[in-house]
Amino acid sequence: MTAETFDADTRKLVPRLGARIAVRRLRPLALLAPSLVALGLFTYWPVLSVAIDSLYARRLGARASVFVGLDNYVRLLRDDKFAAALINNLIYIAATVVPSLILALAFALLLRRSTVFNRALRALLFFPTVVPLIAAAALWTFLFLPTIGLIDYYLGSFLPVSVNWIGDERTALAAISFVTVWKNAGYYMLFYLAALQAMPHELVEAAILDGAGPWQRLRHVILPLLAPTTSFVAVIAFIQAITTVDHVIVMTRGGPSDSTTLLLYYVFTTATEVHDIGKAAAATVLTLALLLLVSGAGIRVFERRGGDAN
Amino acid sequence: MRIRLRIGAAFLGALAAAVALLWATPFLWMLVASFRADSFGSLEMASLLPPRSPSFANFRAAWDAGDFPVYYLNTLIVVLGTLSVQLVTISLAGYAFARLRFWGRDVLFYLFLLQLMIVPPVLILPNLKTVIALGIDNRLLGVMAPYFASAFGTFLMRQTFRSLPRDFEDAAEIDGASLLQRLRYVLLPLARPALAAFAIVSVVAHWNEFLWPLIVINSPGERTLTLGLASVLGGAEGAAQWGLIAAATLLVSAPLLAAFLAFQRQFVDSFVFSGIK
User: Considering only CB atoms, which chain B residues are within 8 Å of A244?
Assistant: First the structure.
């Protein structure tokens, strides 16, 4: 090979190499592009777009929209229905997150040994996770019926009064919360089971040797070790309590007297029934803010506690 | 002492069994009521005793009240359509985050994870606008589109690819396999358990979804199972046809319940994964 032909080859090669480097540079972008397009259209842009919409007065169908500044927010905060939705949702969060975590932990502790018997019981507890929430709502609508419903039929003889669980504004939110707890406790149980299995046995055994009773072991050894799981499950349960209202739509339609109107249900009806897009947009923005603030804080707690899901 | 322990264990076992049975009571009622010859309005509707002569009358009534073949088909299209697109997007993005170094990678990854918090149901209002602008409202594609990217899936694939040794890939690269070939023939076969786990979670989530399809879909011909169930409920509740409602609920839930019973281990493992997000 003469120097001349070598040079010619190199010269031919160099631009190709440059092209290959360019391709390599673009490679991450190309691989991420399909996801980024979908996320852009349906996660990032909508956040921006709903924030913009919340500053305009617009009714569905009307072409023109007028810039009104924070007027939608002012109207929203003056709306008793929105105040009710916010308060109901806060109650609903407390009434679903706490009981479902306690039940999930209790189930996991009861069924932590992997026997055939326990696995069958775990399956029963997990059943509600697999069915649609609206199927659950259909079943519970009947179970909660006064007189002919299952609860009244079997418990009616023990209770002095017949309760119209979802028809009475004093009990409706509790009934909705109960359905949520029933639906999710078995799912959260799985995380506690996984965490219990990963737990170092020596620590629990050491506590037994030190003479710690079951309650002390739970309080001082097991619960602290489960703390990352707890804060993590709490975040999931919290997100669930803000973003799922299927059962409200089917069981109560927010009633009676708005006692089960939750934030997302408020957004849904304000947009689809009242057609007040500006106000629904403002309500979405506040809901998003609550969602991001609390779950962001929860994740930070989770990370600080040294929880490592990876 | 030992006897006391054993009594304690027996007590806890009995307690667990009682709670689990209580938990499953709604399903028991669904099963019993749907096979009972219709007794609507009757006080015995709530009875959990199995019917003396099982009848399919409620299923026939439910089948007539809704267009179930169409609902099943639409749900299948939504579930499988969403899943197939997701498998492509999460594999590509998961690979990029696991194996490539590029500017802004970590920031971008956190931006992906935002989807775990800002889930599509909260964005029904702006997403409906987008879907209308794209001309896919009132179509199954509109139901699927917001889920084409999955932060959970991307995260899962990133973790999985990271755990695989690079040797196989390097060998394939020396043999001249392109990136997509390496992904398709080397990495994805090794990632099959993770793909299956993702598939289970995705199928269950989209089979069961209600609010977003409710907003996107208007015409009865595009209804999914959950929308169909809601419309059957709307008609039957006023008439107190609880046997029909139980049967319709069973029709909607049975496929996933059966799949869960058949693949319990895989379901449980997948759902534990679904938390690792």
Answer: 121, 211
* C-alpha–C-alpha distance, residues B62 and B56, integer Å: 10
CA–CA separation, A54 and A68 (whole Å): 9
The residues pairing with A276 across neighbouring beta strands, listed in sequence order, are: A59
pLDDT, position A3: 52
Interface membership of B233 toward A (CB under 8 Å): yes
| Cα dihedral A37/A41/A42/A47 (nearest 10) | 130
Q: What is the CATH number of the domain that holds B203?
A: 1.10.3720.10
Q: Are B127 and A42 in contact (CB under 8 A)?
A: yes
Q: How do residues A203-258 score in pLDDT, each as one tens digit?
A: 878 888 888 788 888 888 889 989 989 988 999 999 999 999 999 999 999 879 89
B93 at A interface, C-beta within 8 A: yes
Which token pair is A237? 């349960």
Q: Where are the domains of chain A?
A: 3-53, 69-304
Cβ-contact B179, B248 below 8 angstroms = no
- Determine the CATH number of domain A69-304: 1.10.3720.10
Q: Which of B264, B124, B94, B265 is nearest to A283 (CA)?
A: B124
Per DSSP, the three-state class of B19 is: helix
Q: Give the Cα separation of B218 and A229 in Å (integer).
A: 41
Q: Does A59 touch chain B (CB under 8 A)?
A: no
Distance between CA atoms of residues B134 and B128, nearest Å: 10
Closest Cα in chain A, distance from residue B91 (Å): 9
What is the interface pTM, i.e. ipTM, of the complex? 0.90
B63 CB within 8 Å of a chain A CB: no
Amino acid identity, position A130: V
Residues 175-234 of A with CB under 8 A from B: 182, 186-187, 190-191, 194, 232-233
Q: What is the tens place of the pLDDT at every residue in B198-207?
A: 999 999 999 9
Q: What is the pTM of this model?
A: 0.89
Two structure tokens written together for A84: 């009710």
